[in-house]
Amino acid sequence: MRTALALVTMLCLLTLAPAALAEEDVQPTAVVTPEAACDHVVRIAPSGIKFSPASLEVADGDTVCWQWTNESMAHNVVETTEEGGTTPAEGGIDSGEANSTMDFRVTFTGDQTFTYVCEPHASSGMVATVTVGEGDAVDEPEATTGDDEGEDTPGFAAITAVVALAGAALMPRRRA
Question: Are 42 and 64 in contact (CB under 8 A)?
Answer without folding.
Answer: yes
